[in-house]
Design a protein that fits this description.
two-stranded antiparallel ribbon, globular, mainly beta, about 10% helix
Length: about 80
């Protein structure tokens, strides 16, 4: 899934992608440390964003389409990202 400066590799278990590794690109602020992110599979990302924000979550990355489906970046009311 790499293209240009974007380098992303999926890690399969029994032919199913279960994790991914991304090399942070130049557009990520320099003060951003290496980190892990949690992805949760849902039936409707937009509906989940709406429900989560109604319950106090904040949107870090607006919902958008990607090769493995639609995703968004959220944080719970205490600031934990998911």
């Amino acid at each position: 899934m790499s293209e240009g400066d974007f380098r992303y590799h999926t890690l399969p278990v029994e032919d199913r992608d279960v994790a991914g590794i991304w090399q942070m690109s130049a557009d990520v602020p320099a003060e951003t440390p290496p980190h892990w992110a949690v992805y949760l599979a849902v039936d409707d990302a937009d509906a989940l964003v709406s429900a989560a924000t109604a319950h106090g979550a904040t949107v870090n990355v607006a919902a958008k389409d990607a090769p493995h489906g639609r995703f968004a970046g959220l944080a719970d009311p205490q600031g934990a990202a998911f």
